[in-house]
Design brief:
Length: about 450
């Protein structure tokens, strides 16, 4: 074993050892689990069985991992159409937990867990947190929402499973969050990146210096964020920031997580099988190509998901991570296939706006995109908060900042949008996922 690998393993909680399983052994385990999950779904879930029947497929058709490509996809609409319990593969007496994801539109979806599912969820979260360098002795503040959202309880069980001390703060009451961090000597926080930004601002407002707090790690996810945002958070918050990914339909947080190399998110592949497909055709794409992430749960009991179309756009990164984990990695998820805005025929993603803004000094990482329709034409306005100093400076510097932003956005987006500079705190702060786009267009 090389010394890097040895030190990575030494860093870890014993539960993290599966991260280093030799690849051949991992693939063998995945195949065995895939066959079992397909059989379970076929036996227990009517929708899945009928889709397999339509294709003339039985579970025995899965003889190799490549055969996964023959299986039907599952989509979010399938969960909505079978609301509430239509995709459950376990009787209710075996279901110990339900979570609900509301999404932005329409009916909510319900997801279910058996005791074994909760144990798997805890174990992947333990592995994720351990990979970020956390361990027993850490004091972890969980500031994801507790409740129907998976973030709070998912991180909570993981942090407790790690043997750390958990501060179950949930979201809200930023002043109290800062007080807890300070008084309890919190060493790590789990929350959305935008909520942490808000906490940094509040700390400054309360006269608390981040550098005086013992916090050293942040585990951020549940919404897209960019590399410039990471740099901003790390500098202002005096912490190391990690990206954690997950979705309710698959388990919640803990599908994948960065390690200390910060070169992509390791997928906990012994439980979740990743594929990348062309979002338009559903055809599989090679490693390194960007496309839609499709996930299959390999051990889920209560609600197995076969080839779930996440709509999250990323790629499987080729090659192995220097940390020695054998788990494949995905790139940071910057966008979803359904968050694309089409403005006067041009495709625009909110993450492009964030990248452009954060490169310009004098702005704050708080922005919102407002869409309107004027005389039949779509208009996009980007509201950007600027540092208080900019407003007290001469008018000329504000105009200069406006022009630099306008230039950066024109360049990145390829269309002219309206830029409005606003004072700090004009844009509403979110406690969970940030709402970046306000669509005021009426059809
Ligand atoms: O957001 C689970 C979660 C909680 C993940 C806490 C990480 C931390 P849902 O509410 O079902 O579950 O939303 C899932 O959020 O399909 C992505 O579009 C987005 N998302 C989650 N993590 C990231 C991330 C939770 N790290 C949806 N980067 C997913 C970008 C993310 N997008």
């Amino acid at each position: 074993m090389n010394s890097l690998l040895e030190s990575s393993i030494a860093d870890c909680h014993p539960a993290s050892v599966p991260d280093f399983t030799p690849v051949a052994q991992l693939r063998e385990l995945q195949l065995k689990r895939l066959q079992a999950v397909v059989t379970r779904a076929w036996q227990q879930v009517e929708l899945f069985r009928s889709r397999m029947d339509e294709r003339g497929l039985a579970p025995q058709a899965v003889r190799s991992l490549e055969d996964i490509g023959k299986l039907p996809f599952t989509k979010k609409s399938d969960l909505r159409d079978t609301y509430p319990f239509g995709l459950f593969a376990s009787p209710m007496k075996d279901v110990v937990r339900l979570h609900v994801s509301s999404g932005t539109t329409g009916k909510p979806i319900v997801v279910a867990y058996t005791k074994e599912d909760v144990d798997v969820w805890t174990s992947v979260m333990v592995r994720g947190l351990a990979g970020c360098g956390l361990h027993r002795g850490d004091i972890i503040q969980v500031s994801y929402g507790y409740g129907l959202f998976t973030g709070g309880l998912g991180a909570h069980y993981g942090a407790e499973g790690l043997g750390a001390t958990v501060v179950p703060a949930s979201t809200g009451n930023a002043d109290r969050q800062i007080m807890l961090m300070k008084d309890f000597g919190v060493t790590a926080i789990c929350c959305t990146p935008t909520y942490f930004l808000h906490l940094i601002d509040r700390a400054a407002g309360l006269g608390v210096e981040m550098k005086d707090l013992p916090i050293r790690t942040g585990i951020f996810g549940a919404e897209p964020w960019t590399e410039p945002m990471r740099k901003h958070i790390e500098t202002m918050g005096r912490i190391e920031a990690f990206d954690i990914y997950g979705l309710s339909e698959i388990i919640g947080p803990g599908v994948g997580c960065e390690c200390r190399r910060h070169q992509g998110l390791h997928i906990f592949e012994d439980h979740f099988y990743p594929e990348i497909v062309d979002p338009a055709t559903g055809e599989p794409l090679a490693d390194g190509s960007e496309g839609e992430l499709v996930l299959t749960t390999l051990s889920k009991q209560a609600m197995p998901m076969v080839r779930y179309r996440t709509r999250d756009i990323t790629s499987i990164l080729p090659g192995r991570c220097e940390c020695g984990r054998t788990l494949r990695r995905i790139g940071r998820i910057g966008r979803r296939s359904d968050d694309m805005l089409i403005i006067r025929g041009v495709n625009v993603f909110p993450s492009q706006v964030e990248t452009a803004l954060l490169e310009i000094e004098g702005t704050l990482p708080h922005y919102q995109i407002v869409l309107t329709r004027e005389q039949g034409l779509d208009q996009m306005e980007v509201l950007v908060e600027v540092t208080p100093r900019m407003f007290t400076d001469k008018i000329g510097s504000l105009q200069g900042l406006h022009d630099r932003l306008q230039g950066a956005l024109d360049h990145v987006l390829g269309i002219r949008v309206r830029v409005s500079l606003v004072e700090a705190y004009t844009i509403e702060r979110s406690q969970g996922k940030a709402k970046r786009v306000i669509d005021r267009r009426t059809t």
